[in-house]
Specification:
globular, Isopropylmalate Dehydrogenase, homodimer, 357 residues, 50% helix, alpha/beta, eleven-stranded mixed sheet
């Protein structure tokens, strides 16, 4: 547990579709929720300062780090890195974590640019070959962590094992369980099925002494069921799965609306059941599940959805704080060392002659 | 258009969780829908014959091809191929298409075994390196075709182009459009993103003179929106996307039920709106979208969901007939020839020195 009393969060005030108009009210909500949190607001002072006037509690606990350079939502990562280096709000907010000025950082900006800068500034942890983005996925059971949802395309067996370890550490921070259940996403639960690297990762995890319960392969429909705490996959498939689920949820919400407005009686019924629909809407509210966590770096970086509002942004801040308070980075560091022993042993075993088939 | 008057469909009577108890009533429904269709029921006569007694209209137009060997739902494909060769209901039903006894075949059996046998018996079409399974996906616009949803893992650029051509041909049969829109599933719509083989397939399709409208990359959430008629991806990602969507749909249906039964007033509201919910349920009914089409073979093979009922099985028969009546196989054959010219030209161009970057 991080015992530091006053945490400081750096916010990329210029990120997201609405920039400071969304970020500052979001920070203000967060200031109420976390009375001891301090804020480092990075961006254009002429836009931030007037907004702070409306939020006295936030203003008292904020510092503005001025810059008038910011990364646009459609910039290519390489371009953002070149042009935004050292002086963009996104860069400076991440850099505050490196220098220790801030304990964590949240940005609603361009995902690709944020990941490129975060990797460049904070570097990956020893033993981690590639970072991952983890999504918090609402399930029938409660919530699960799904990673990678788009940091990098493809992953070999040992990278999948790294993802499993990072996801397990995040689950311990977020859900407070000692040994989270972990499954590898695959296209069949039988051991025979699936791609070679997924099967190999399964073999490594099965024999590993790590703070996780490896339960085997899971399929796409297991994510929503909440079969496991952590679902591990490579970034291409993870991103497609995440967006497909978002698309399906929107599709069904539209169907529901269309059905309920068809006749007068159904409209009346819908009106009577409006409390139920409000509860449903609340449960499905994407603002309550906002915040993709960048895992595997020397620091906690959280990506908020670019189109979210103040409430959603405050959720992303909650996620970042939860990770810092529970020492996500040291948990990953410790477990990666254990993991490397496991992989070394697994590889050594592979080289021994087979005695059984 | 297939002008043959009396089509015959071969049915693997032993396939699916319930076997003949589901297949025969499904065929009976189909017999009413398609008054000129003939049925070849392959399986255990002692189980099929008594069921036929209840369905006179079906009985008159059916022949039973007896066998008491059948492939179990959990058999490995290689095992099924070895043990079920020549004499299992699944094998004999597919073989009836090869010999011309039947025009098409439907099975609710084990997917892996069905694909292995179908490839072995019917062979892939000239110019097609690997078959695909296409799913009919309900969307906000109407329906789309998504392929491959699990026939094979991974696909290079020219295999993705093959999938595009097979999907386009199926869309022309199913939706009656002349130039279906086709998109490649990717993790970003910008041309820069995504895996190399997807980008390369995009370049080939962009310049191709084929009966399709290539619209570029689509993301996971575009599937449910119905952005394009045909969504092309490799089998691992396609299968995960399909199952994730199924899982999300179930999850939301459960949420809805839970919300509506929370209070007395919401229960009353739900009762008043029950017509609307029935319409919604009908729209989401998986039995109305049953039938995975095996594409790229010398014949039309349709896989029904193993757990479906008679209504769902009748839908799978509808799909198979639609494909045969609209000459799916010849459409694919013609377009694959065009495609091969396109790929040859694209490859030749790649070998020329680059003049622009």
């Amino acid at each position: 547990m991080n015992t530091k009393k006053h945490l400081t969060i750096a916010l990329d005030a210029m990120g997201g579709d609405a920039g400071p108009d969304m970020v500052i009210p979001g920070a203000a909500l967060s200031a109420i929720r976390h009375p001891e949190l301090r804020f480092l607001l990075v961006g254009d002072r002429s836009r931030i300062a007037p907004l702070l006037e409306r939020h006295a509690a936030l203003k008292d606990r904020s510092d503005i780090l001025h810059t008038d350079v910011f990364v646009t939502m459609d910039a290519k990562p390489s371009q953002a890195l070149r042009q935004g280096r050292g002086r963009s709000s996104m860069w400076m907010a991440i850099d505050a974590v490196r220098t220790g000025q801030a304990d964590t950082v949240v940005s609603a900006g361009n995902t690709g640019a944020l990941m490129a800068m975060a990797r460049f500034i904070l570097k990956t942890l020893p033993g981690i070959s590639r970072p991952a983005i983890a999504a918090i996925w609402p399930t029938l059971r409660s919530e699960s962590i799904v990673l990678d949802v788009g940091a990098t395309i493809g992953a070999d067996a040992s990278q999948l094992v790294e993802f499993a370890v990072m996801g397990e550490a995040m689950a311990r921070c977020l859900f407070g369980v000692e040994r989270p259940t972990v499954g590898l996403l695959n296209i069949g639960v039988e051991e025979m099925k699936g791609v070679e690297q997924v099967k190999e990762a399964g073999r490594i995890l099965r024999g590993a002494e790590l703070p996780l319960e490896y339960t085997g392969f899971v399929e796409g429909d297991d994510i929503g069921k909440g079969t496991v705490d952590v679902v591990v996959t490579e970034g291409f498939t993870g991103n497609i799965a995440l967006k497909t689920a978002e698309g399906t949820a929107k599709q069904l919400a539209t169907y529901l609306k269309q059905s309920l407005t068809r006749t007068l009686v159904s409209k009346l019924g819908a009106w009577l059941a409006s409390g139920a629909f409000a509860a449903l809407k609340d449960r499905m509210d994407p603002r309550k599940h906002n915040g993709g966590v960048f895992l595997g770096l020397n620091g906690v970086v959280v990506k908020s959805h670019g189109g979210t509002d103040a409430l959603g942004f405050a959720t992303a801040i909650d996620v970042a704080l939860e990770m810092v308070r529970n020492d996500l980075v040291s948990k990953i560091k410790t477990d990666v060392e254990k993991m490397n022993d496991v992989i070394t042993r697994a590889t050594a075993q592979d080289k021994q002659p087979e005695t059984t088939i």
